[in-house]
Amino acid sequence: MNKNFDLEKNIQSITVGIKIKNSFTIMDSWGSIVDDILYDSGDVFPESMFTQVADLYHNHRMYNEITGEYLDISTDNIILNIAVSEKLNDAIRALDKMLKYIAVNIISRNKLITRRIGVVIRYASSKEKLEKFKGAYFNNVSKEISDVRFSMKSLTKDSRLWQGNDNYINKIFTIEEGGISYDFQVYFNPLQSDIRDVYVKVIDEAFKFFKQDVVEAMK
Q1: Which of 66, 119, 132, 184 has its CA 20 to 30 A from that of 149?
Q2: Gap between the Cα atoms of 191 and 21, Å rounded
Q3: CA atoms 175, 180, 181, 184: torsion sign
């Protein structure tokens, strides 16, 4: 996953959400998942990445209050959030290892079916660039409006994700003071029982469209 544009200083975090068909057995596997990640995942999940574990009402969570990184698991979602504190490519390589681990040791092992994968990129930006971004998508938007949320469904078929299927892409833009949250979502048709090859394509396409939809719009 080699990106040819420099975003290291602007991207703050990357969140990957995997929407699955409801599975109540995954909650029963939570204890073994925690043990495996903490003690048997090698260098995939650094020892200091998750410092606390919480059993919440609707979900279970491993997290770090200082970095904001977490892994959430519920009956219909697996969500991984990582902070980007150093070079972007290093963060993406680490994310790739974590997602491969999740695909093999959580998704496949528990026979989970994936409906959707979403990638949320949080991007810090100046007021001037945010105004350029709003101008690229809207006419006569007041500078006083700082919070904007809108979505776009992609119908293009030139993506690596379209071969032999009826997948579609939805993109959600959230403009807030200080930056943009870009949510790139791939809905699978047919649904996926094995995402070991799929998630790589989703991450690559998310960054490709992010550059096109966000970075280019700020120029």
Answers
A1: 66
A2: 9
A3: positive
b vs e for 148-180, b when ≥16 Cβ sit within 10 Å of the residue's Cβ?
beeeeebeeeebebeeeeebbbebebbbeeebb
| 3-class DSSP state of 57 | coil
* pTM metric for this prediction: 0.91
> How far is the C-alpha of 162 from the C-alpha of 149, rounded, in Å?
27
For 162-180, what is each residue's pLDDT tens digit? Answer: 666 788 899 999 998 889 9
Number of Cβ within 10 Å of residue 68's Cβ equals: 12
Cα angle at 219 between 200 and 87, to 5 degrees? 40
- Contact predicate 119/15, CB 8 Å: yes
* Residue 12, phi then psi, degrees to nearest 5: -100, -35
- Residue 151, SS3 per DSSP: strand
Terminal-residue alpha carbon distance, the chain: 24
Q: CA-to-CA distance for 207 and 182, rounded, in angstroms?
A: 10
State the Cα–Cα distance between residues 28 and 23, nearest whole angstrom. 10
Radius of gyration of the chain (CA): 18
The β-bridge partners of 120 are 15, 183
**CA 41/CA 47 separation, integer angstroms:** 10
